[in-house]
Specification:
Blueprint (H helix, E strand, L loop, with lengths): L2 H6 L8 H24 L3 H22 L5 H25 L3 H24 L10 H28 L3 H22 L4 H24 L11 H18 L15
Helix pairs in contact: 2-3, 2-4, 2-8, 2-9, 3-4, 4-5, 4-6, 5-6, 6-7, 6-8, 7-8
Length: 257
């Protein structure tokens, strides 16, 4: 089997610097886009959750039915998880009155359970092994839980701990930098570090998104949610086109010379 064919078997991207830049833009878009629908359009968290749930299901079905890695389809699905995560977390925290601490705890347990079942069933939670429909299902469920948890963590840090949106962004940004240092200079499992960075990139995006669109009185820049979302979409499209976007390694590559 040729390297080109083997590479085409994987439908998730290679984890390089460009991946993380686009991921942070996508998580920020999830915050501004989700708030634009639920708050600026006055549809509410429940209606917003239904809308983005439909988009998420359609995107995941398209992603799983694809025969090879498609950057636009992949990142559309990521954006669908982060916007749905925003509205789900806000609905639970605010509409249901669970609160940030309660919501973050429940979502943390769901995320841990998803990773545990994935690990027990497949033997690994490495994204290099996302090569079957069952593994893809675990992958997208885990990502959805991580995006929802990230929203709750970002709001909790910014609103409840007195740091504000800028302070929250600094905290989560610093945590991701420390994970990057650990990746290059320690022997901590790269799989563990990947998921830690993936999870923390969501509250980073949540706090940056809130920093952009919240009122000045709340420590934000009071930009239009819709305008900020359009700018973020444009930036993502430019980076997807400009930066290398290729499928990550497939497990078959480790067995076929």
């Amino acid at each position: 089997m040729t390297n080109t064919l083997k590479q085409g078997l994987s439908k998730v991207p290679e984890i390089v610097l460009g991946f993380w830049i686009i991921k942070i833009l996508a998580t920020t878009l999830g915050e501004t886009g989700g708030d634009a629908v639920t708050m600026s359009m006055h549809l509410g968290y429940a209606a917003g959750t239904v809308i983005f749930a439909v988009i998420f299901v359609v995107a995941v079905i398209g992603q799983m039915r694809a025969v090879r890695f498609n950057p636009l389809l992949y990142w559309l699905t990521i954006v669908a998880t982060t916007t749905l995560g925003t509205t789900m977390a806000d609905f639970a925290d605010r509409s249901l009155g669970i609160g940030y601490a309660g919501g973050a705890t429940i979502l943390g347990l769901l995320l841990a359970a998803s990773l545990a079942v994935w690990r027990w069933t497949e033997g690994s939670v490495s994204v290099d092994r996302v090569a079957t429909p069952r593994t893809e299902t675990f992958y997208w469920i885990t990502i959805l839980f991580s995006q929802t948890l990230g929203t709750a963590l970002g709001d909790w840090m910014a609103d409840s701990n007195g740091l504000g949106f800028g302070g929250g962004a600094v905290v989560f940004g610093t945590a991701i930098i420390l994970i990057a240092v650990a990746y290059y200079f320690t022997r901590i499992s790269h799989v563990v570090l990947f998921w830690a960075a993936f999870i923390l990139s969501r509250p980073l995006g949540a706090t940056v998104g809130d920093l952009l669109d919240k009122p000045l009185a709340q420590g934000g820049f009071e930009l239009s949610r819709t305008g900020a979302s359009v700018v973020l979409i444009g930036a993502m499209l430019v980076l997807i086109a400009a930066l290398p976007q290729r499928a990550g390694p497939h497990p078959a590559q480790q067995r076929i010379s």
